[in-house]
From TrEMBL:
Organism of this sequence: Aedes aegypti
Cofactor: pyridoxal 5'-phosphate
CDD domains hit by this protein: SHMT
Lineage, opening ranks: Eukaryota, Metazoa, Ecdysozoa, Arthropoda, Hexapoda
An example molecular function term from Gene Ontology annotations: pyridoxal phosphate binding
Modified residues (N6-(pyridoxal phosphate)lysine): K251
Catalytic activity: (6R)-5,10-methylene-5,6,7,8-tetrahydrofolate + glycine + H2O = (6S)-5,6,7,8-tetrahydrofolate + L-serine
Residue span, Serine hydroxymethyltransferase-like domain: 22-418
GO BP annotation list: glycine biosynthetic process from serine; tetrahydrofolate interconversion
Gene name of this polypeptide: 5574978
Family membership: Belongs to the SHMT family.
Record-given protein name: Serine hydroxymethyltransferase
Amino acid sequence: MPLCNHKNMSGNAKLLHENLWESDPELMDLIRKEKKRQVHGLEMIASENFTSLSVLQCLGSCLHNKYSEGLPGQRYYGGNEFIDEIELLAQKRALEAYRLNPEEWGCNVQPYSGSPANFAVYTGLIEPHGRIMGLDLPDGGHLTHGFMTATKKISATSIFFESMPYKVDPVTGLIDYDKLEESAKNFKPKIIIAGISCYSRCLDYKRFRQIADANGAFLFADMAHISGLVAAGVIPSPFEYADVVSTTTHKSLRGPRAGVIFFRKGVRSVKPNGDKVMYDLEAKINQAVFPGIQGGPHNHAIAGIATCMLQARTPEFKDYQTQIIRNAQALCKGLLERGYSISTGGTDVHLVLVDLRPAGITGARAEYVLEEISIACNKNTVPGDKSALNPSGIRLGTPALTTRGLVESDMTHVVDFIDRGLKLSKEITAVSGPKLVDFKRVLHEDPTLNAKVQALKEEVQTYSAKFPMPGYEEF
Ligand SMILES: Cc1ncc(COP(=O)(O)O)c(C=O)c1O
């Protein structure tokens, strides 16, 4: 609620107290359009979600105003009495959400998002040009796991550290742990990263740990995509095996757009003579986040983390996460029944990677036509793809749809919409020929095909709008 509601405000008072819809109708109009797009579409981008009203209220709160460089109790600015309490609460709840003993684990809730969190992990743990190994981006890893191409170091994590990727088996689509073991023996990484952006199976953390141990490397789990599922205990947790775990908080966890780093504390190992070797990660990680990489923490986001971690401990949250997986499996089953090919043959998590090569459709066309009918997803490389620039698959995720209350029976409709969209893309290609520009032109300009696209879009929009959306009514 605004504090002031004077109709006759002027000057600075007007700047300060007017509602956005009065002070900036042009921007408000765009925000309303985006809200409408979200409500009327099927959101299937695997990394997206619709956060709760409570989290949005944190993000729009007075906490945004405060500078608080440093950690609770050790700030560079005054006035942090309550900010300290909020950050400590976020830390405590983050540990509780993952059932961690505070004697064994600590966490830093200040990372602005997943990418700076990961950069802070490398900065804290190893020297510049230290060696890291992560799943290759085209194989389902993330940019920040050291991505580079043959001609260019793309991610800063490959510019400032030396990276060597591991891969999935091109036939099964599963991580080739034997090859990882062999490469690690040669490359001698200081950090092995267990984390995915597009991989539909649970990770074998035990095997990762063995390979890390054999090379004296840290095991770093980036659970950004799956952190909601891990908190709910519906898939294996990396905490049993990892030294450090990072996460974003806005994907399956359904919190604010932010990041968290968890680090081990206490005894790391015991020498043959009985001497204890202690972990020394806490100061290294904390200093890498601030002052190493970041400045003032985003206190509004940290409050959002606190409240989403509270939600993550509820039975309702566990039901939600269970339903995410059920929906992904129902989606997978439906697509298989319609003859589509699924990478790895199925899913254990929140996402499905559809291999469109047998269907004769490119990922780019599929993504484009689905977007035109109000289904949001992204094109993605599939195992064995020759070119990362022209991927042959699409990645579909269920966290956002599940938030809106869709269940397995609704997936039948979703599959039907996707199937009809993809069939339309084949019809359009038959007219347009192979070039994507021609495909887009024909989709919009061919009256018969465009009418079909518009009719399907209307069906999808009417269907989507039936499901509730958390957050503010209008924006
Ligand atoms: C596994 C993984 N790590 C890190 C990130 C980076 O997160 P952000 O986009 O918040 O920087 C992502 C984002 O997609 C991710 O999938």
